[in-house]
Amino acid sequence: xxxxxxxxxxxxxxxxxxxxxxxxxxxxxxxxxxxxxxxxxxxxxxxxxxxxxxxxxxxxxxxxxxxxxxxxxxxxxxxxxxxxxxxxxxxxxxxxxxxxxxxxxxxxxxxxxxxxxxxxxxxxxxxxxxxxxxxxxxxxxxxxxxxxxxxxxxxxxxxxxxxxxxxxxxxxxxxxxxxxxxxxxxxxxxxxxxxxxxxxxxxxxxxxxxxxxxxxxxxxxxxxxxxxxxxxxxxxxxxxxxxxxxxxxxxxxxxxxxxxxxxxxxxxxxxxxxxxxxxxxxxxxxxxxxxxxxxxxxxxxxxxxxxxxxxxxxxxxxxxxxxxxxxxxxxxxxxxxxxxxxxxxxxxxxxxxxxxxxxxxxxxxxxxxxxxxxxxxxxxxxxxxxxxxxxxxxxxxxxxxxxx
Length: 404
Fold this sequence. Notes:
This protein is mainly α. It has a single domain, classed as MFS general substrate transporter like domains (Growth Hormone, Chain: A), CATH 1.20.1250. The protein is built from 18 helices and no strands. It has helices at residues 8-26, 33-40, 44-72, 74-93, 98-115, 118-128, 131-163, 165-176, 179-182, 203-211, 214-243, 248-275, 278-298, 303-316, 321-332, 337-366, 370-386, 397-403. α11 runs antiparallel to α17 (370-386). 59% of the residues are buried.
């Protein structure tokens, strides 16, 4: 595999910044739920369905973009996605029709964030680095995305407060274009394949081999639960805070705090991915989420408890990504990494669709998010258990060759 055209430090820095923008802009969507539904007399479930559709299409198109990135390089895919995202957000700003908003926010934006999202960015970075730097770099990339959430979400909230939701959406569109220059160093055009039977597989053979492997399905089940958690809380936590009669700023602060503390969580996860069994790390993360949600259900909802919950959840927020990517690379190889991880990420986004949409439906029908919090807690327990039988050894190269 060819060496990167720029220094490792520059490569990691630009990937981290690109991931920061991608995640920060995407996670600002929940801030627009209250002002846009009030301005257009939409229901919470109508807005939530559009965002849930975005999450679902993000996952559905991820394997396609992953395969294009594997064939032609991640840089081109990310740049196209950034352009499409700017167009989608601009469309969202100028429509007052819920079906048209759903088209821009759900369909166009879903395709855009799939192309210019963290899976493509991190897979491209992973492929460009030597093995001993991959875990730490993946942790940095995930931490960068969290820093984007910490930095961008308050900026978007300030824009909503000062200039209104429409001007804030146009700011998001403009910031999306900054990903284009940041993607330039991610020039991971496929180089000469490394020796070994798994590099001789076609994309179809690699996918078939992964789908026949129980480890793929255990990994995907955990990704589904992770997506359910992230989308439910990312979209509905500000509205939940408002339903508890707390200031609007507490909701935005909670989302921002999740991003801040996930910097530490992602960095720690990247380090532990290099030093510890990835399977046990995932079990611990999901179990800790379940305990934390159970605590949050039992305590009074005050500014302090919301912010403490956000900080602790932030440590666990995207810390699943480094061990998941490492398990994909370890079990299924590097050649089609973006494709295979794209399939895993599809299940993450199906969970995301479920969390975003179901949260809105439950709130519209019951006037409360309590049932959704219980579902999120039970899903944590399921995810912790289902990670246990996953294989965490070196790739079975002989099996790969014969399975293809």
